[in-house]
Amino acid sequence: MGWVESLQRAIDYMEEHIEEHLSVEQIAKEANSSVFHFQRTFAILTDCSVAEYLRRRRLTLAAQELSATDQKVIDIAYKYGYDTPEAFSKAFRRQHGITPSEARKHLGELQSFNRLAIQVNLKGALPMKYRIVEKESFQAIGVKRDFSMSDGENMNGIPQMWMEVNQDGTSDAIAQLSNGEINGLLGICTNYQNGATMDYWIAAESNQPVPEGFLEMEVPASKWGIFEVHGAMPEAMPKVWKQIFSEWFPSNHYENAGTAEMEVYPAGDAYSDDYVSEIWIPLKGKK
């Protein structure tokens, strides 16, 4: 089974069990994937987290039932996982802009988030520049933070981390340590712990002694797919991630090896339309 079919199978599983308590571990198992890579692929392709998708879908179905049935609000709240009518009303209003009682009376508009169907674009309308390289393990020096992967918290925390290290001069200090083959600052995702937490590093390839206040890690030897990213940050990077997963992987005989992933930011004006950065993904052959 290909990864596209696996992802759709996981979505179908979520829909079939939408009224039940679902863990991301259960859902990822349906996709035959690690929790981290399922969450990451899902977020890249859909622009929302697994938890957000479930919440949107449940509140969409709840709105349909409020409009079309005479079930009690409290019963619908419990059905879709809310312990109290107050919690349900707050979440409902956040999504739809009206209260459950207003929805029952058909006062106002509702937002419908429809069931997902994964559609992969294999046309390759926009050319992708990439290369495959073999690289031995290497040392990276920098700073690290642990992030929860619950409800996409890592997606919000990582940009905040970059903002802080850029403002306090840490990123400049890391850049001065760079003396390896990879030219630039590295954003490294690694050490995924059962889908619960991950480590994120802002680092540089370096064989220098580790200065006080910094840490070192060994990036494992890998076959890397290296994809060029053209354009200003932060908009350019997510577009290429989506293109990799929606076009490149389905039409190639590689899959993600599941070890460290990297974004490489060379020196230069990252907000310029001419800026060139890279995405490094560890690869292995498909089974």
Descriptive notes:
The protein folds into 2 domains: 102 residues, Arc Repressor Mutant, subunit A, CATH 1.10.10.60; 156 residues, Multidrug-efflux Transporter 1 Regulator Bmrr, Chain A (Alpha-Beta Barrel), CATH 3.20.80. 39% of the residues lie in helices and 23% in strands. Strands 1, 2, 3, 4, 5, 6, 7, 8 and 9 form a 9-stranded antiparallel beta sheet that branches. The longest helix is centred in the N-terminal third of the chain and has 19 residues. The protein starts with a helix and ends with a strand. 29% of the residues are buried.
What is the string of helix and strand elements? HHHHHHHEEHHEEEEHEEE
Helix percent band? 25-40%
What low-confidence regions span 5 or more consecutive residues with pLDDT below 50? none
CATH fold name of the largest domain, please?
Multidrug-efflux Transporter 1 Regulator Bmrr, Chain A
Spatial extent as radius of gyration:
22 Å
Domain count: the total is 2
**Percentage of residues in DSSP E strands:** 15-25%
The counted number of beta strands is 9
Q: What is the end-to-end distance?
A: 10 Å
**Treating each run of at least 4 consecutive H or I residues as one helix, how many helices?**
10
Q: Based on the coordinates given, report the CATH architecture of the largest domain.
A: Alpha-Beta Barrel
